[in-house]
TrEMBL record, chains A, B:
InterPro entries: DNA_clamp_sf (IPR046938), DNA_polIII_beta (IPR001001), DNA_polIII_beta_C (IPR022635), DNA_polIII_beta_cen (IPR022637), DNA_polIII_beta_N (IPR022634)
Annotated protein name in UniProt: Beta sliding clamp
Domain spans labelled DNA polymerase III beta sliding clamp N-terminal: 1-119
Intracellular or extracellular location(s): Cytoplasm
Xref: SUPFAM superfamilies: DNA clamp (SSF55979)
Residues spanning the signal sequence: none
SMART domains in the cross-refs: POL3Bc
Lineage, top ranks: Bacteria, Bacillati, Bacillota, Clostridia, Peptostreptococcales
Main location: cytoplasm
Keyword Cell membrane: no
DNA polymerase III beta sliding clamp C-terminal domain sequence ranges: 244-364
GO CC aspect terms: cytoplasm; DNA polymerase III complex
Annotated Gene3D superfamilies: 3.70.10.10, DNA Polymerase III, subunit A, domain 2
UniProt family annotation: Belongs to the beta sliding clamp family.
Source organism (scientific name): Geosporobacter ferrireducens
């Protein structure tokens, strides 16, 4: 096997496929990246068996073949090489000589036959979604997935596609994030995608590239196709919670407030809240003012915000973390906070769009 | 005690004096910052008893006094406040109310009488040194101090002032860094300053401010005065090694090489060297070529560099870390490497100035 490619392209592709390589795997071959000639291209593959990432780059293929090389050391070497052509020569004993200008590295690779094949996903019936929209939908939902594995289904994001609409929903038992987008739907699909997979895709989607992302589903897997990159992920099995039942239909108090002001106040209030327990902050809503207070052993904080209130006055407590999370990802200048009682969920919504809803459970106040 | 000051100036001063506050101290009062009114100014002080940092900022003093407030929480709060005026009101029970626009924090401070006084250093007979020069001298020497405390004197940098010249020297038993500068010397001084102190001063010296740094010495302490900031540090006690004896006077081989090329090659070679033991890399110097090689279990590297050689061929081994450290801080385009034998020290020098000398001990090659 022998090929020549550009250092820049190779370094970039290694960085992408490395996102699927786990350093903690017990299967040594999975610590490697598969390099494989495909016609006049070079394919790179990394996988941890849950997620697989493939990128194809231009290369001058002098003789065909495939090899697996340690992801860590390969990445370090290629990134340190000058911006020039890199030549790989691999003999039948898997000795790999990497040559670039005045540098020559010799590494021992592993045979490619030991590398697991990625699941096959037939590339027909694609859903197409713009990169911008998809990136935003991930940003506004994936943070709300559960981190602990006690209920594995909650570590994923439910994706529902039907009637030219795509919904993404995540929840962890304390809060729920719902985002709707438009998509051309050839048929209906419903799948729970691991949060980790979506976070990796969010990182891969580049800000410059504007092509659509293509989605293909099988019963067990999903394939995301972005230009020359493929991400294949296992789906989560099990029944997702019927989230529509959880969302309240009405409210008794509605507060309109500037997103940025609320975020700043919450950040200050949570400085003391995080030193105490539960990150507890208390909202007191009355007329045109909302105060946010927090008490900890080391001190107290008292924040005042101008609001527009429609409905009843209210005192209610929250874990400030769940509020901070959502305030950081809402792009709208103003939001509504909708309340029913101080023991029922609060809804957070941008004022200028219907496509986002966030639900957060209150903390019962001692008093 | 009551005063009003600007959030920006206060946040900046806290960031500066915090560099002297240790979170690991066993004396709780030292986790705090002393705030003290001085005429129509506010003085902030942090110290860990080894180093003390003081900054004075403008303030409107409404009533005099002093208080100690937890450095961590005070810094977090002030940094999160809006860019506006901040008012502090402190009652006789040390309750501290911090008010800024719509935010009000209440913290309990500690009485200032418990805060240790910084050592008094009489401010006469100052040495003046330009910030740029001093910053560079620190950058080119302090990294070579010993990190472990088995020989405390080696954790410091020797400063010698005499005959309008200032020398700074650091060594750790494996390498030595020597930098010379010019200074107006009223008298001779010689002191060993903790590396930590100099690193903090390197961070404090701002790139915009161009005023000189003033140095004042006593037997036990040194004071660095920079505009409205004072840094007072204990000196290290004990006899510094007679470094002049260590520096070789002659060489048998002299190599001239481009600094950047050698750095790049060493960085690549050390990728494999660090996986092996001792970070061992081998130089083979012959005619117009220097090769750098490294062998590890995972692979080999072979780097070739164009050089100008004066004198004999040589094979010699080094710990790559000690070479990387110096190559990163030499600003000159080309350097000389001077060798005598492959078991005697190598000297690294810029080709365009006499003011810097670095010595590095070789690693004996197994052959």
């Amino acid at each position: 096997m022998k090929f020549i490619c550009s250092q820049k392209q190779l370094a970039s592709a290694i960085t992408i496929v490395q996102k699927a390589v786990s350093s903690k795997t017990t299967l040594p071959i999975l610590k490697g990246i598969l390099l494989e000639t495909v016609g006049q291209k070079l394919k790179l593959v990394g996988t941890d068996l849950e997620i697989g990432i493939e990128q194809t780059i231009d290369a001058e293929i002098l003789s065909e073949g495939s090899i697996v090389i340690s992801s860590k050391i390969l990445g370090e070497i290629i990134r340190k090489l000058p911006d020039a052509e890199v030549e790989f020569s691999i003999d039948n004993d898997h000795n790999t000589v990497i040559h670039c200008e005045n540098s020559e590295f010799t590494l021992v690779g592993q045979p490619a036959v030991e590398f697991p094949e990625l699941p096959v996903v037939e590339e027909e019936h694609a859903y197409q979604i713009s990169q911008d929209l998809f990136k935003n939908m991930i940003r506004q939902t994936a943070f709300a997935t559960a981190l602990d594995e006690t209920r594995p289904i909650l570590t994923g994001v439910l994706m529902e596609i039907a009637e030219n609409s795509i919904n993404m929903v995540a929840l962890d038992g304390y809060r729920l994030a719902f985002r709707q987008g438009t998509i051309k739907s050839y048929e209906n699909s419903r799948a729970v995608i691991p949060g980790k997979t979506l976070n990796e895709i969010h990182r891969i989607i580049s800000d410059e590239d504007t092509a659509d992302v293509e989605l293909f589903f099988t019963d067990k897997h999903v394939l995301f196709q972005m230009k020359d990159i493929k991400v294949i992920s296992r789906l989560l099995e099990g029944e997702f919670i019927n989230y529509k039942q959880i969302l309240p239909k009405e409210y008794k108090s509605r507060v309109k407030v500037k997103t940025r002001n609320l975020l700043d106040s919450m950040e200050r209030a949570s400085l003391l809240a995080k030193e105490g327990k539960n990150n507890l902050v208390k909202f007191s809503i009355k007329d045109e003012t909302m105060t946010i207070t927090s008490n900890a052993e080391i001190g107290r904080v008292y924040e005042t915000l101008n609001i527009e209130l429609e409905g009843q006055d209210l005192d209610i407590g929250f874990n400030s973390k769940y509020f901070l999370d959502v305030l950081k990802i809402i792009d709208s200048e103003e939001i509504y906070l909708e309340f029913t009682t101080n023991v029922s969920p609060c809804i957070v919504k941008p004022t200028d769009t219907q496509n986002y809803t966030y639900l957060i459970l209150p903390v019962r106040l001692a008093n």
